[in-house]
Design goal:
Blueprint lengths: L4 E5 L5 H10 L2 E6 L3 H10 L7 E2 L12 E4 L6 H10 L3 E5 L6 H13 L4 E4 L6 H11 L6 E9 L17 H4 L2 H11 L4 E7 L11 E9 L2 E8 L10 E5 L2 E5 L5 E6 L10 E4 L7 H13 L8 H20 L10
Bound molecules: nicotinamide-adenine-dinucleotide.
The site of nicotinamide-adenine-dinucleotide has 24 residues, from loops.
């Protein structure tokens, strides 16, 4: 099997992609960051020689690398993704795919016109607890779902002195996209959302720092997302899935999950506690899945359209909280 040559761009959160690619066994052909200090730090940490370190990503467009990972501020996802796709490089880009419909559309177009593959890093689809939840649903253990809820609670008090305070980077899109994407993956596409928001905790941003949205997925299936980026607690993505035959309570930061099932009469049995690995940034699995799609000509589950649909729901939630009206997410790109 060909060894993939990888360039990793953005050396903060993007260092997790270096580790993911290394775990998989790819060759780290280049590290890139426009900030020399961050570049040097990562270069030394991963023992990447100076000639493979770049401050300008454009220098990588004409090299023989196969894959780039893009972990730069969200507003730049469009530019870098489109340029590398046009250069024929496979792109693994961080979430959220983009912040506006125009940018989402541009990335989808570049993906459609390229021979290369594109993946948006919706990492929750590789979180062990959520993978297990998906498996229990698919195996019918929970019966038919009727209510799904997920929350993204993460204290951004020290994270909003930069591009995260961009008015377009509403917390529901920036971080809440994890919870929205998870529910879309587990329960399908919501057809209508209705949301409320409050702004009490993060004075440095212009958008709400807490939002609750209820959702209608289809006949007899509803959901809820709660996003709090000002919360006073540890990071959590507590998720509860209610089905006609059972209920599952899980989290990306807990070593156990709770499963309720029923006896022959449909009565709830004693809860089972299931152990689960805590790995809320499973970059190794994420990279391995993308590499498999590239090398074995498989479709990418979270391609640009899929990433765009998740942002479409987030945009609908933001609009609903602003207007006080229900909104139907627009999935047509
Ligand atoms: N999947 C997750 O859970 C998760 C977690 C954190 C961040 N992210 C995403 O990762 C991306 C980066 O976030 P972060 O927290 O690392 O941000 P950050 O601001 O801490 O770091 C960004 C890095 O990219 C560099 N950079 C910026 N523009 C560049 C360019 N044009 N070329 C080369 N380098 C450039 C900066 O110098 C910096 O080192 C964002 O899209 C964010 O949403 C995802």
């Amino acid at each position: 099997m060909k060894q993939l040559k990888v360039a990793n761009i953005g050396m903060k959160f993007g260092m997790s992609h270096v580790e993911g690619a290394m775990q998989y066994g790819a060759e780290i052909a280049a590290l890139c960051d426009c900030n020399e200090e961050n570049l040097q730090f990562a270069g030394e940490r991963y023992n990447i020689p100076a000639e493979k370190r770049f401050t300008d990503y454009k220098a990588l467009l004409k090299t023989d690398i196969d894959v780039v990972t893009v972990a730069v501020p969200d507003r730049q996802h469009r530019q870098l993704s489109c340029e590398f796709l046009r250069a024929g490089k496979h792109v693994l880009c961080e979430k959220p795919l983009a912040l506006t419909r125009e940018d989402l559309q541009a990335i989808i177009k570049a993906e459609d016109e390229s021979e290369a593959k594109f993946m948006v890093g919706q990492i929750c689809r590789f979180t062990p607890a959520f993978e297990k939840a998906k498996q229990l649903i698919d195996d019918g253990v929970l019966g038919d779902l009727y209510f799904v809820e997920s929350e993204y609670a993460h204290d951004y008090m020290k994270l909003c002195d930069n591009w995260r305070a961009d008015p377009l980077r509403h917390g529901v899109i920036g971080g809440g996209c994890h919870a929205v994407d998870l529910l879309r993956w587990l329960a399908g596409d919501p057809q209508e959302v209705f949301a409320y928001g409050t702004h009490r905790l993060l004075p440095m941003v212009s958008y709400d720092d807490a939002t609750v949205a209820v959702m209608k997925f289809g006949e007899n299936l509803m959901g809820k997302v709660f996003v709090s980026t000002g919360c006073k607690r540890d990071y959590t993505m507590r998720t509860v899935i209610y089905g006609t035959k059972g209920t599952l309570i899980c989290d990306n930061t807990s070593p156990t999950m709770t499963l309720f099932t029923v006896d022959e009469e449909g009565v709830t049995k004693q809860a089972q506690t299931l152990p689960v690995e805590v790995n809320n940034h499973n970059a190794g699995k994420e990279f391995a899945v993308f590499a498999d799609a590239i090398l074995n000509e498989k479709p990418v589950l979270t391609d640009a359209r899929e990433g765009a649909k998740t942002v479409a729901v987030c945009l609908a939630i933001v609009e609903s909280a602003k207007t006080g009206k229900p909104v139907n997410p627009d999935y047509v790109f």
